[in-house]
């Protein structure tokens, strides 16, 4: 994940830090954090959660989070059709941007598999409130029957 380190160095203006050095101790501040979040989103499609980053503000922790998200993320592209089933890819049309047609824009939805069981009899998709996170779902996993695969939506973005 050399690219993450390059972004980190560029924003902090230094290469003099270790993987366990804290972002704020080596010159980072809240505005730099917003820039980091934007660059990480652009480069990796990863949504850096501020509350989580404040608990583990190191380069190593950020790389671990990105790798973990890549490992468990299952991207579904929603297709513009009516009466679609969960077995198909689906597209959701977006309103035209700057005169472009909706055919040129797709809404990409990333799902995170919270629990996957090959013997499951069904799937449960959980959708958090706007600007919410998936972390509260971990607290209720034990109360949901093992016969269900659990997925949650995160990182909805436009693909041109």
Please give a handful of descriptors for the protein shown.
20% strand, single chain, four-stranded mixed β-sheet, 2 domains, 160 residues, elongated, Non-ribosomal Peptide Synthetase Peptidyl Carrier Protein, Chain A, alpha+beta
Dominant shape: elongated
Bin the strand percentage: 15-25%
- Overall mean pLDDT stands at 74
Percentage of residues assigned to helices: 25-40%
**Parts with pLDDT < 50 across at least 5 consecutive residues:** 74-102
The value of Rg in angstroms is 18 Å
N to C succession of SSEs: HHHHEEEE
The class by helix and strand makeup works out as alpha+beta
> Which sheet architecture does the biggest sheet show?
4 strands, mixed
How many helices in DSSP terms? 4
Protein name: Carrier domain-containing protein
Organism: Gongylonema pulchrum
Keywords: Phosphopantetheine, Phosphoprotein
Characterise the protein shown here:
- There is one protein chain.
- 29% of the residues lie in helices and 20% in strands.
- The protein has a four-stranded mixed β-sheet.
- Helix 1 packs antiparallel against helix 2.
- The longest helix has 15 residues.
- It is elongated, with a radius of gyration of 18 Å.
- InterPro entries: ACP-like_sf, PP-bd_ACP, Ppantetheine_attach_site.
- This is Carrier domain-containing protein.
- Keywords: Phosphopantetheine, Phosphoprotein.
